[in-house]
Write a structure and sequence with these properties.
The complex is a heterodimer of chains A (272) and B (311). Helices cover 56% and strands 11% of the residues of chain A. Chain A is mostly helical and 272 residues long. Chain A has 3 domains: 63 residues, no CATH class; 76 residues, no CATH class; 122 residues, Outer Surface Protein A, domain 3, CATH 3.90.930. Chain B has 311 residues and is an alpha/beta fold. Chain B has one domain: Divalent-metal-dependent TIM barrel enzymes (TIM Barrel). Classes of the chains: A mainly alpha (272), B alpha/beta (311). The structure holds fe (ii) ion. Fe (ii) ion binds next to loops of chain B.
């Protein structure tokens, strides 16, 4: 009798903030047994622990779902089991502080870098590099989908004067040490790609009419587009290739006409 | 406050706006009375979600329903969050703004779940203070929803309906009565759902929610992934009678079917508006025990990978 009175007094003494800190701890660290009875009532159907367990299960399941949704290709690359192990560790290390789940994976690339198994080894393995590149790429895809940009533009056409061509506002130019964009497309379209070997690759991730597009490009095109992005001048981008890569002017003009046709179709340009 | 809860309009029968239905709505302009958005999905959107919302908001009344205000947290209010919320409200002009009687985290963390608050004098005091702060800041009444709960704290001394009633008396906030949540919580925490609905301050109920759930035998999970079950319809008819009818909305967030199926499910509500007949709520058959998550994330993040143009 005395014991139960003490127990109920002890329970009643818990403050509002103590209760919340206890519960949050239970969600984040379900592996540590808690004093469930002191906080949670049991019912005829479930014990206090089983009631708490519903929240614990939902917490991690919801965030795992979100991680898979934000990193579908990485989840494929690592395999679901291993991906979830990484995700669980990540969520312990970087629990969400944002009001939106959109930010959930923002530190995942950094986390994989910090925890790579060969972190202190002199000779590094290459697969962690791939996973980190892929993670950073996938998060950028999420950002690009919903980032703020001026979308009130006029489409450029074959008739648009060259001086009036401008890159579409959401336009990310990317260089990778692995064929990231190819792998990503294969994975998200359920084509089951194999892990790739290291190979430099270049791509454009853009948003046009609120839809994302992903296009592989050649190194020389990467340099051209990088200069164009910097100067917003096609003439200067051309001159840069002539100076820097000793491209002959006539040849470049030929290439450029082909590039332009293709890129206009793919939505690289708007009208200034 | 410029507006009183009692002055808010009856919008009729509405649906939760989901990305899966964007194209259908834009193309067919279906005859739905109004839409409810998840505020957080649009607060920082500069992409397609916001672009679509702007078009829909021109044609339909919109209500903003949030999941991250964390009014029941012992952390102070997040004014950065409230600022973004208010900015969105200024831009899309919702009929009202709602969130849940819950907390999402403490010590600046967010569990992204709608966690249950301990229901006692201490929490009532803190929560009513915070509601007043929010109402002052947003310059409009705050509408709060009863969440689905899966546990009762030892330290809770006030029934939830009584807690909501005291909150309303203290702040004149509005209530969003989620009838399915009443059913789910009453099953999980063993209270009487009829007594709950009877006890609420009906004149402050601005809106109702309907949804489906997953019955796992010894507990029910609020999954929003299936049709509304009969016992919930019965509770709805009781709430409809007591409130004299109010804006009603169907939530469907997991395994989202085609728009027309959601709409047809919503319109079933019309069959339950002619009075509450049963004295006890029919029991429900149990489904198999599938591991399910409450508030599935489809409701909070866009499926970006499926949104690429062919490239
Ligand atoms: Fe609800």
């Amino acid at each position: 009798m005395k014991i139960s009175k003490d127990a109920s007094r002890k329970a009643a003494e818990k403050s509002f903030s103590e209760i919340q800190q206890w519960m949050q701890h239970q969600l984040l660290h379900p592996q540590f047994a808690g004093d469930y009875e002191a906080f949670v009532k049991s019912t005829s159907k479930l014990s206090a622990k089983e009631h708490m367990r519903i929240y614990q299960r939902s917490y991690i399941a919801r965030l795992r779902d979100c991680m898979v949704a934000q990193f579908p290709a990485l989840s494929h690359a690592l395999g679901r089991q291993l991906f979830l192990q990484f995700a669980d560790l990540y969520l312990l290390e970087y629990p969400s502080k944002s009001y939106t789940l959109g930010d959930l994976g923002q530190h995942f690339g950094a986390f994989l870098e910090e925890t790579r198994p060969d972190k202190d080894a002199e000779v590094k393995e290459s697969w962690p590099d791939f996973m980190i590149e892929l993670a950073n790429f996938e998060f950028l895809v999420n950002i690009s989908f919903d980032e703020k940009a001026d979308e009130n533009y006029q489409k450029a056409t074959a008739e648009t004067k060259e001086e009036a061509l401008q890159l579409v506002p959401v336009f990310h130019l990317l260089k990778h040490n692995f064929p990231i964009s190819e792998y990503y497309k294969e994975a998200v379209n359920d084509r089951n790609p194999e892990l790739p070997f290291a190979q430099e690759s270049y791509c454009v991730l853009l948003r046009r009419d609120y839809r994302l597009g992903l296009f592989e490009i050649y190194p020389i095109q990467y340099h051209f587009l990088a200069k164009l992005k910097e100067t917003q001048s096609i003439a200067q981008a051309k001159q840069f290739l002539i100076n820097q890569f000793k491209v002959v002017g006539d040849e470049l003009e030929n290439h450029w006409q082909q590039w332009k046709t293709k890129w206009l179709e793919e939505g690289f340009f708007v009208k200034r | 406050m410029k507006q009183k809860v009692q002055e808010l309009p009856d919008l009729g029968l509405g649906l939760g706006l989901r990305g899966e239905h964007f194209n259908h709505i834009l193309e067919y302009k279906p005859a739905v009375d109004w839409f409810e958005i998840i505020s957080e999905n649009f607060m920082d959107s500069g992409g397609r979600p916001r672009y679509v919302l702007d078009q829909i908001a021109e044609q339909y009344p919109i209500v903003m329903h949030g999941v991250s205000m964390s009014i029941g947290s012992t952390d102070p209010l997040n004014y950065d969050y409230l600022k973004r919320l208010k900015k969105l409200a200024d831009e899309i002009n919702p009929k009202w703004i709602s969130d849940h009687l819950c907390w999402t985290g403490v010590l600046s963390l967010n569990s992204h779940d709608l966690l249950p608050v301990v229901l006692n004098e201490e929490s009532l005091q803190l929560i009513t203070t915070k509601i007043k702060q929010v109402q002052d800041y947003l310059e409009r009444p705050l509408i709060l929803e009863n969440p689905s709960t899966y546990l009762t704290f030892q330290q809770s001394t006030i029934p939830e309906w009584q807690f909501l009633k005291s909150m309303v008396e203290e702040t004149n906030c509005g209530l969003l009565l989620d009838v399915n949540n009443v059913y789910v919580s009453s099953f999980n925490n063993e209270f009487d759902p009829i007594e709950y609905i009877e006890g609420l301050p009906h004149e402050n109920i601005v809106q109702m929610h309907l949804a489906g759930h997953q019955h796992n035998g010894d507990h029910i999970i609020d999954t929003h992934d299936s049709p509304v079950v009969d016992p919930v319809w019965e509770l709805f008819s009781l709430a409809w009678e007591r409130t004299g009818g109010t804006s009603t909305l169907l939530e469907w967030d997991g395994n989202i079917p085609e728009f027309d199926i959601c709409h047809a499910e919503l319109l079933k509500a019309k069959n339950y508006m002619d009075g509450f007949k049963k004295q006890c709520i029919a029991s429900e058959t149990m489904q198999q025990d599938i591991q399910t998550v409450s508030n599935p994330i489809d409701f909070m993040v866009s499926n970006v990978a499926k949104d690429f143009v062919d490239s």
